[in-house]
Amino acid sequence: MDQKQFDKIVERQTPKPVMFFSIIKAFLIGGAICTIGQLITFFYIRFFPFTERTAANPTVATMIFIVMILTGTGLYKKISQVGGAGSAVPVTGFGNAVVSAAIEHKSEGYVLGVGGNIFKLAGSVIVFGVFSAFCVALIKTILVKMGVVSW
Amino acid sequence: MIKIKYILLLLLFLTACSNETNQMVYPENDLPELEQVLKSKEAVYGYRSVMNKDDVLVSIDIRRMHQFSENKIAKNIKKELEEKFPDKEFLVSNDLKLKWEIEKIMKQNLKNDELTKSVDEIKSLLKEET
């Protein structure tokens, strides 16, 4: 059996991913996470002295706290198996990446294990997040200077 | 059959319920020109306003497609109102907190000292950046 034949057999055996249903599932799970986030925002605006502009920070903190508990109990793994990108793209996916790395390397000690590896998965998010924010700010500054948009 | 179900589900998710528009000023009939200015704006479909001495808080509901330039609209309305009433200080915003706080004031029918206190509180809240 040569490589081509083997590849053919593998291709026949692997189940085909159902794109349409995956997209629907990602949409529903991602939408559900964002709806919960929006409800938490409304909760903070309604019952605490936060405005729409300032309520974002406590909302993100609360969402990450909830995900921390879900990751620790192993529930977020089940959610992300169904939701896929829908559970990875919101800030909850970032929280999950940080907490799961911390749990994984706990046995290596708190300083070199947890401290050294906590941003192993989420580090790229921070690097490219900061870089893209810099690029967007640069573009906006140029547009403001040209008089196309205002701050 | 399954496809039809999904299309129906999508329709249900994508169509939203619309709220009733609300146009209220507290205390009533104090500034009729204010209502005229707000009613003339196409982008604004609802407003709530509270007046206390020289401070006027105006919360506006901006139509969906105009929300991209919400700050600009609020700024323009503020400018227009300040030109009409130079002796008053206006705070125009489409922030949900402002809307809910004004509704609370209307519901509780606050007067004098209590009204001043809550108006000052709202003003300091909306100035906060972080």
Automatic annotation (TrEMBL), chain A:
Record Pfam families: SpoVAC_SpoVAEB
Protein keywords: Membrane, Transmembrane, Transmembrane helix
InterPro entries to which the protein is assigned, alphabetical: Spore_V_AC, SpoVA
Transmembrane domains' residue ranges: 20-45, 57-76, 83-103, 118-139
Name the record gives this protein: Stage V sporulation protein AC
Organism of this sequence: Psychrobacillus lasiicapitis
UniProtKB/TrEMBL annotation, chain B:
Protein keywords: Signal
Listed name of the protein: Sporulation protein
Organism the protein comes from: Psychrobacillus lasiicapitis
Signal peptide limits: 1-18
Superkingdom, natural source: Bacteria
